[in-house]
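Standup notes, structure subgroup. Blocker cleared on the L-homoserine input:
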Amino acid sequence: MQTIKIGMLGIGNIGKGTYQTLEINREKITQATGLDLEITKILNRHPEIDRGIDIPREKYVTDIKEILEDPEISIVVELIGGIEPATTFMADALRAGKHVVTANKAAIAKNGQMLTELAQKQQRILRFEASVAGGIPILNAITSALISNEFSSVQGILNGTTNYILTKMTEEGASYEDVLKDAQKKGFAEADPTADVEGIDAANKLSILISLLFGKGVGPDEIPTRGISNVSSEDIAFAEKFGYKIKLLASATSKDGQLTCDVEPSLVPQDHPLANVNNEYNAVYVTGNAVDNLMFYGKGAGPLPTGSAVMGDIIGVARKIEKDAAYDLMSHLRYDADLEFIGEGCNPYYIRLQTYDRPGILGQITSTFGVYGISIKTMMQQALNSEKTALDVLIQNQSVASVDNVLRVLNS
Ligand code: HSE
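Run returned:
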């Protein structure tokens, strides 16, 4: 039986999850592949720290050279996260003739083009299934089983932290701040939650999906992005009255030669499958011209779900090595599709306003919308006290940007 030796960079949560997935399922993996997979070296800058996992200490190395210069290691698995030094490590591994597997969405979203070109030049494989939606095998699905489709759109709940917060706000009527504090206490949200709550993490993942689904290079910084920190319990309650749930959606659409995309808290009709994706779960809803609508659902984070995706990539690469295939086009990021990138599209929006309760005020507001060519679908008014009134307005097919209490509505 052929032994494939693997060098792993990092032994944090995902590193441990990957190691454990291989250990607990070793027999099944060997049976299914006819290969003996062995993680022989692990880059661990602080071997003195107890990682809470039983790994023979002789596997630990503190210098990446010990992995890159080991001729027996054919796959390097990058699990340290962040853009640098992870990108440099992956590039060095490809230059050293290793195949690379990573879970790193930030590095792939930013430097995927360079790494893909380098992999091609070196005739080595680069895979990154775990970088988008953790345990959900969405990249494999769109680059293999669904490859015959032209895709027209994708909507994803790609961040578990924000989905957990929005779910708790919806179920408990609690404020954003209170739920975030509670989530941090329970370890569901990072001490610095900025990348998650401001939509940056979801934008990284959407950038990767856009490249694989539509062949277009749209960097995460180019994606119009708003997080959930402005979503209030009032927004959630009013959305419910209109028949919607609020979700942080990462969306992209290719239509008539134009690509639109954004990451925004959005109103999702209660009968849409994405509306029932709750807590830390992720989902990707994708539409292809042959397959029609498909939804993938599962855990988007966590050591074992992410480890399952990393191991899937490792096995995929190991099978190629066994067949002596040095390079393949699977997970091949593309950036040059003939699509005009126009940023945020034209969508229905929800607007929440507070105004003084005076005769004629409603007329003035609706006239102002009319002046700007904005068509109102539904409007709900509720007196707040003797002076003020709250207005909730659903508008049709208009793009309204840069107003804090405007939430996108998912077309149903
Ligand atoms: N922080 C991410 C989330 C998981 O909350 O979904 C890793 O991508």
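Discussed briefly. The chain has 13 helices and 16 strands.
Next: hand off to the docking folks.
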